[in-house]
Amino acid sequence: MTAEPPMNADHCGFAAPVSSLPVDACDRSDAGGVLWLTGLPGAGKSTLADALADLLRRRGLQAKVLDGDRLRAGLNRDLGFSERDRFENVRRIAEVASLFADAGFIAIVAAISPRAAMRDDARRIVGAGFREVHVAASLEVCEARDPKGLYRKARRGELREFTGVSSPYEAPRAADLVLETGSRSLADCVNALLDFALRQFGRVGDSQPVVRETETG
């Protein structure tokens, strides 16, 4: 039996990440870039992206989350889940992320982007500022979480082309950062991601962790 994974605050007993440092109100103009978070459904991509963006903003950095699910409900609502549409979905996200990076933002993409070729296309679109982050959790762990009940629907045959069940996921072979969300706590993963983001796109003195674990009771 798979133990409950630690990533989701509801499962791990931790509150949302809390910054232990004051907000830097200064307007900063650091170089932009794209952090592309890829992983199975339920691996923790959106949770990490939102937490990271909040902490970056608290340090005066411009950050924008581009969440795959949210974009499919708006910009990409005309797309389905065929192979061709999935490639187009990733291409559009990459184009938008590139625009934010060019404007000096740290764009944090949270998208399954299941094929290596899709992520390669995104890297070509973004260019030198692209960083691939593998949010790694086993299928068993992700299915045990199943926060939206999608795995259950997929197992019942109600969802076609669902990544991890009826459609493959190609894990990165050489990601710039790997976060093992099935075995590490939420706070630990956010700290690692924050440290990486600041080293890549922040300033030299910014790279200390600022997240603490808070017991909920």
* Secondary structure category: alpha/beta
Overall mean confidence score, pLDDT: 83
How many structural domains in the coordinates? Answer: 1
The largest β sheet comes out as: 5 strands, parallel
Pfam families: APS_kinase (PF01583)
Active site: 113 (phosphoserine intermediate)
GO biological process, one term: sulfate assimilation via adenylyl sulfate reduction
Pathway: Sulfur metabolism; hydrogen sulfide biosynthesis; sulfite from sulfate: step 2/3
Key terms for this structure?
217 residues, alpha/beta, Rossmann fold, five-stranded parallel sheet, two-stranded antiparallel sheet, 38% helix, 14% strand, globular, disordered N terminus, ATP binding
Can you characterise this structure?
InterPro entries: APS, APS_kinase_dom, P-loop_NTPase, Sulf_AdTrans/APS_kinase. Pathway: Sulfur metabolism; hydrogen sulfide biosynthesis; sulfite from sulfate: step 2/3. This protein has 217 residues and is of the alpha/beta class. It has one domain: P-loop containing nucleotide triphosphate hydrolases (Rossmann fold, 3-Layer(aba) Sandwich), CATH 3.40.50.300. Helices cover 38% and strands 14% of the residues. It is built from eight helices and seven strands. It has helices spanning 9-12, 45-58, 68-72, 83-102, 116-126, 139-145, 150-155, 186-201; strands spanning 18-19, 33-38, 63-67, 106-110, 130-136, 177-180, 211-212. It has a five-stranded parallel β-sheet with strand order 3-4-2-5-6, sandwiched between helices. The chain has a two-stranded antiparallel sheet with strand order 1-7. α4 (83-102) packs parallel to α5. It is globular, with a radius of gyration of 17 Å. 42% of the residues are buried. Residues 1-5 and 8-29 have low confidence and may be disordered.
